[in-house]
Amino acid sequence: MSCMHDILQHNNQIYVSISGDGELVSFDVTNSCNPIVKLVASGIPRKRFRQCDVERYLVESSEGELLQVERYMRRQKKDEGRETKMFRIFRLDFDATKWIEIESLGGDSLFLGDNSSISVLASNFTGCQSNSIYEYNTRVLHGKGRKK
């Protein structure tokens, strides 16, 4: 199997973003002796953004949609970590089995991290901005959020 980028439990299935282009596979593990692995959606054509690495995150929106987020970033000087240059967000169209790029998160905010990612309805949290992406790692929450 290709490299795994992220994993998410959604609607009683386990989904894994694999390969460099974000192909999505599902694992039906209801029968532990014979789990079923299925290609759900092919990859996403990557934008050419000079000297950037791409991280992928799987997130369930507050409305139950399956999202895949591409985070384009550049490495900084030795101890300064990574600088995010842009995001692209896709919603899975289960019927067409493909990713659809979206321009807005609506009332949601995304919290993306190296170990887990979540989506929340911003209006339920004081100070949380809708249509924003918050980046964090195991050490620190970065910034006040980025508008998508």
UniProtKB/TrEMBL annotation:
Domain (KIB1-4 beta-propeller) ranges: 3-134
InterPro entries with a match to the protein in the record: F-box_BR-signaling, KIB1-4_b-propeller
Protein name: KIB1-4 beta-propeller domain-containing protein
Membrane-spanning segments: none
Domain of life where this protein originates: Eukaryota
Pfam families named in the record: Beta-prop_KIB1-4 (PF03478)
